[in-house]
Queue: 2 jobs
Job 1
Amino acid sequence: MKKIVTRFPPSPSGYLHVGGARTALFNWLYARRMKGTFVLRIEDTDVRRSTTASVDAIFEALEWLGIDWDEGPFYQSKRFDIYKEYIQKLLDSGHAYYCTCSPEQLEVMRKTAMATDGKVKYDGTCREKGLGKTENAVVRFKAPLTGTTVLHDVIKKNIVFQNSELDDFIIQRSDGTPTYNLAVVVDDITMGINTVIRGDDHVSNTPKQILLYKALGSPVPDFGHVPMVLGKDRSRLSKRHGAMSVTAYRDMGYLPDAVLNYLVRLGWSFGDQEFFTKAELIEKFNLENIGRSAGVFDKDKLLALNADHIKATPPDQLAKHLIPFLKERGVNAEEGEFLESVIKTLNKRSKTLLEMAEGAIFYYVDDFSYEEKAAKLFFKPGVLDMLKLLTEQLEQTEDFSEKNLETVFESFIETTGLKFGKIAQPLRSALTGKTVSPGIFEVLEVLGKDRTISRLNKAVQFIMSK
RNA sequence: GGUCCCAUCGUCUAGUGGUUUAGGACGUCGGCCUCUCACGCCGGUAACACGGGUUCGAAUCCCGUUGGGAUCACCA
């Protein structure tokens, strides 16, 4: 059985968006699953639109997702000699010819075609002229006029194209640089790529590429065209659909594995299973279960999945991801037991790391101010005595474990005759400044005795000064 | 407009001729739990685009219609 070689070939003209990440993921997963090779190639033949900033952004996104590559990154811009060589081969074998039709002429033809029968095709003016190389000449591929070219797609099954619909597309621009279809084919041939998984939007290019493979006498790889990812309005995903860059999700507090999980499940399924760890994905991913219809990107489902991944990730691992978010909020938390205990109180109530970081601040910061709602609702003169009494009680308590605290409060309820809610809510506001927080015993335990007492005293002062 | 692709709840999907009163998840609605918010649990809502065939039998196969998407560059 042959060794699978897949690739991801982004063009560096912007950040890596979720659609691109998904095709990268499919290729990566398939290579990993089949114990094959995954190649990264930067398609920067269009010098005007490619930037190194985009290249870096793509690396950054891929690394964050945990998608690593075995070979590359290769840059097409450094391979122009190879393309020239192959173009010459095509010229020599009669599969290509020089064309001197000007862009303006072509534009006119295109306009007319669109307006009349809708068939936009190069008319073959230079096809049989046998022109030599001249200034500003482009090289066109001499495509067959009759017959059919069939694409045996592993996802979409067979797609038949009439060669009469294809035209003599340009393979070398007038400035001597290769055009996309030529460059991909040459790269895929020379890099030994035998499995091409890519977006649906490439199917119409595929017959041209197949023809190129044949003209070059190279074996045609397996193609698999995955359906597009659509926006809420069912049109192709774009900026106006909101945050689409992978790193934007990182910054919003998503876990890379959650994003991975969501992206794969959008278009691929494994029975009824919704939650997958990265290891499970590598173990279970296949091409057969990729669907044939386009899918709408659903932020709510991603969010729910992120919450699931947060719950499933061990606190010590979550800590690494959370620390940067705390730092942004001025909290210099360190990995360790304390942070982990903080996380344990928050992981079931946070859908994102950002949310978790917000919820964790009060554990670290002592001089917080009270939320208006908290002060108004729970810091009434009537609670003063209770709070004072409770402070005394807690001062005498040495064991601040959740379990022991519960019994302490039980007896406190008995002696005061108060409802638990009447105690817990003011206490919560005193300790956190807010009306919502993790369970009160959890908060007490994590905060510890000293901080609890001082925050209680501060609250008492606050109420008296009102 | 030409070419190509697609079509199950609002969304992602399971389903590959009978085991289906079409299953799961997200969302949504109601309830339980409860110290707040969550989590969790229980329950409800909601789909085979339409029309013809084929067949004893069709969400599953075929054809057409409609609808949606992609693509038509000296971009990738």
Job 2
Amino acid sequence: MSGDQDHRELYNFFFQDEFSPLFPQKPAAGSAGADAYGHHSPAAPPTTTFLSITDLLRSSMVDYAAVDKAFGLSSSSSSQVPVAAATVGSELMLDVNSLSTGNPPVTPNSSNCSSSTEAAGDEDALRRCKEEQLKQEEEVQRPEEAVADHKVGDMSKEENDKPKKKGEKRAREPRVAFVTKSEIDHLEDGYRWRKYGQKAVKNSPYPRSYYRCTSQKCPVKKRVERCYQNPMIVITTYEGKHTHHCPITLRGSTHLFPPPPAMSASFCHNLMMQQAVQRLNSSAGDNKFGQRGNFIDPNVFLQNLPPSLQQLQFQDYGLLQDVVSSMVNERQLP
DNA sequence: CGCGTTTGACCGGCGC
DNA sequence: GCGCCGGTCAAACGCG
């Protein structure tokens, strides 16, 4: 397989279905264990599957406008990519490795990716589900707020949680919505969390759980809930930046997770990039992701992302580059 | 005993 | 003003 072919598969995966008409090449359906929607055969080992755009949309977990904005497709899109939507985009990156190798992404969590029709429920339910999601998406899509929050990301919890003045809205950390298919509610992400609350969700039989990072003075929180319409779908919303290194190795990996430099919006980038790099490194044959033997040049990796995704990376480019670089360097160690 | 979870109470924002 | 709802607190509890 040529490098160009690899690139095309990666490229196409991001923009299949709704997005494919916007980009020149059509995906080759059903390559190596994954169907045209990035779904894997039932025989595939249990995994948590990061949804394709199609799944996201069909599951009403993401609104089109948000995704359009995230990919810079909207004519009204500004230079600022909404954090949440951008992460929705990069979230799909986790499937890059499954696409590039034809194998499903492996995570500690158990779930099969089933057919794309499973999310199709009654339309009213879908609509309500979408409305709920839109509320969340709206919260995350206040660019000026997100930018402002980035600037105060290292604030202490006390400073952060309390309004500066009476009557002034409490500033929120940028939120990152993270949609996964999993039987497990609390996905292992390398950080330690303490549950501090649980609330019943309106119109849903599934409660929403609230977690806080257990590290001292770390302001990061996350909410975990299931889509009532599709219980297999877990919505994890992260808020804030970690102010410390990742304390836990992932999936029994023998090498430590790279220290998150300035830990921006999402350590999920670390997770995803780690898996992507691992997959790419372990895949047979050459590719165009700057892989030289057992080495991936992060610059080349990024350059080979589709332009709109490169744009997404800009927000965290420094982070991403560092992460990839760290991971690659560690992998090179004997 | 320390750490994490559970769960009811509380608070603030928001819509009517 | 009132009620609803999301989010948080904190005491009680469980577990290793």
